[in-house]
From TrEMBL, chain B:
Keywords: Lyase. The gene is phnG. The lineage of its organism: Bacteria, Pseudomonadati, Pseudomonadota, Alphaproteobacteria, Rhodobacterales. The keyword Zinc-finger does not apply. It comes from Paracoccus siganidrum. InterPro entries: Phosphonate_metab_PhnG. This is Phosphonate C-P lyase system protein PhnG. GO terms for biological process: organic phosphonate metabolic process; organic phosphonate transport. GO terms for molecular function: lyase activity. NCBIfam families: PhnG_redo (TIGR03293). Pfam families: PhnG.
Amino acid sequence: MYVAVKGGERAIDAAHAWLAEERRGDPSVPELTVAQIREQMTLAVNRVMAEGSLHDPDLAALAIKQARGDLIEAVFLIRAYRTTLPRFGSSQPVDTARMAVDRRVSATFKDLPGGQVLGPTFDYTHRLLDFALAAEGAVPPAAPTAPAADEAVPHVAGLLDRDGLIEAEAPDDTPAPDLTRSPLELPASRALRLQALARGDEGFLLSLAYSTQRGYGRTHAFVGELRIGMVEVQAELPELGFAVPIGEIELTECESVNQFKGSRTEPPQFTRGYGLVMGQGERKALSMSLVDRALRWRELGEDFTGAPAQDEEFVLSHCDNIQATGFLEHIKLPHYVDFQAELELVRRLRAETMQEAAE
Amino acid sequence: MNIPLPPDDARRRDWMAILAKAPPARLAALMPDLPAHDLLRPPQIGTVMVQGRTGGTGAPFNLGEMTVTRASVRLGTGEVGHAMVQGRDKGHAARAAITDALMQGDAAARIEAEILDPLRREAEARRRTRAAKAAATRVEFFTLVRGEDQ
């Protein structure tokens, strides 16, 4: 129960002033610029854009600065800002097969058209702290280059699909439902689930995906393909009547290839899980593809084993960190009246119990 | 995935793509003086919902929004230009719309050479640089000869 209470205004003003001072830290240390955060804390910026569900690196960098590096607080700021903007429409679905890939690896095929391209990855680093980075001003040597083949980089799933070894993802133009325009209804379509997962908390999805690997809704996933790169975004301008490119954004796409025994109507074939995330976020894209696959048990005729990752209501209702943090953190706000009522009740029950004991 | 268009529309789509992807500061540097124009729709910041496809090829789903700025202009000579460009730079949207209008008039060849060609060359150079760095990280597999084979 909420009851309006007045007071605390002076305390709140002082708290905010102190917050601003603490945010700045030691004034003898140079202040961070938004451009520095955007360019050098890129993966934090990407995470804030993905979970904030708004692609704008400058805004995400500003939010990180304002939130003192608290990424969930920064996501909150982005979500709040987004609501102030008019939406002009929807893009055409992006064509990830035409991505200009910075990175593209497959764990299922060694040799494949387009090759295995590692890109700027943390993989194969030794995870030893590099104290050379503590010394400022060093410019790293330019990355090596090699002649680019300019060849097509087709999706790995397409190679399996050609032989009918994997379930087909047939072209389909069913309009996508939108979580931000109408409340979540269950059971949710796969399109709605993917939207919820794409903006969901990376940590939550990581844990759920890990749980499926450990046996809670096992799907035995291989990384069919993971790709990161720039994709063109096209949208129709009403004045023109046709779609034109309006920009390009970095995306991370992951397609998992999973075991499937076949059914009465389908011969044995592999099934698919899909992850697509704004920016460079391969842990999230990988997690998303595993969770997407686990949630598909019903349409693939699998058993519901009661695993959390299979439970659509559980996953979709709890994957949004802004909803979660909003409800969680509200309990630290004044609940004086609720608590007063509980206190009264406990005192009365205690008095009754003690009286009974005395009699 | 470019839908086939009549040649004039395809050409327009091509220059709008270059303008939308141009770094705003670079476009501003290439257009120090703007021709006389009316703002039919002053630059307005908003969002576009970006869609993906399930499995890359299946049904569309909503991935998340991106910020965009749109504008429409009419030149003193009558041509109408439109733009919708990524980000929140109002000058970027206005210059892109003005260039779109200029490309429909007598100045098209000059605009092509002075604005679009440099932007196209620079975008291609950026793309090539990244592709060359990616190519250097492409794995060349080789098979180790095992002891029992010798």
